[in-house]
Amino acid sequence: MNRPPLASELNLCLCHSCGMACDMTDEPHECERCGAPLHRRKTNSLARTWAYMLAALAFYVPANLLPVMNTKMLGSGDDSTIMSGVLEFWAHGAWDIALIIFIASIAVPGIKFVALTLLLVTVQRDSLWARKERSKLYRFVELIGYWSMLDVLVVALVAALVKFQALGDIEPRPGILFFGLVVVFTMLSAMSFDPRLIWDRERDKERDTEPQNPQDEEPMDEVPSH
User: Fold this and answer.
1) Global pTM?
2) Domain edges within the chain
3) Other beta carbons within 10 Å of 113
4) How sure is the predictor about 118, in pLDDT bands with cuts at 50, 70 and 90?
5) Is 78 in a helix, a strand, or coil?
6) Computed over its alpha carbons, how large is the radius of gyration of the chain?
7) Cα–Cα distance between 192 and 206 in angstroms, integer?
């Protein structure tokens, strides 16, 4: 059964900004519709994805160990980390808020680290395992990436609203800066990964198994015996 042609075989390139299939006959550098840069493949995809993910992993440690905000009530202040804030909300009965902060600030970055590592390792090993599922996993990583900013937005909003001088005050602490860097670098890591690498080995295998000459598939006529 003949497979459908690839975009590269039709000399087409998909614009990652507007989704237009651009004709690459004259090797254009920009999309004719939106002006975004065109590239057949993401440059140094694996190296950049590893670099961004390892940088995010390095910032993930101080983001969870350092305090993210300081709460002052009637003159007495207390620093709180992400996890201590989750436990405090849970202890006061606000389990829904605690669950949201835990998922957005701890679970989501952890899932992204595991998923990106899985994608990178399987691609580098030329694995044919669960290609369709890995493509869906990549789209899932892209989808949940933006929700990691929820904790940063909560701290920024609370710090801006709670300003009662001597009665009460909330100030951000260095931990929230590191957490913001974690979110940015994990998003850059996901954006740098080229999901087409998942399917390259299968395409190469299909090319290798295709007959070089169409006549090879036709049965040879029997030689008449004398």
Assistant:
1) 0.72
2) 1-40, 44-207
3) 19
4) very high
5) strand
6) 26
7) 27
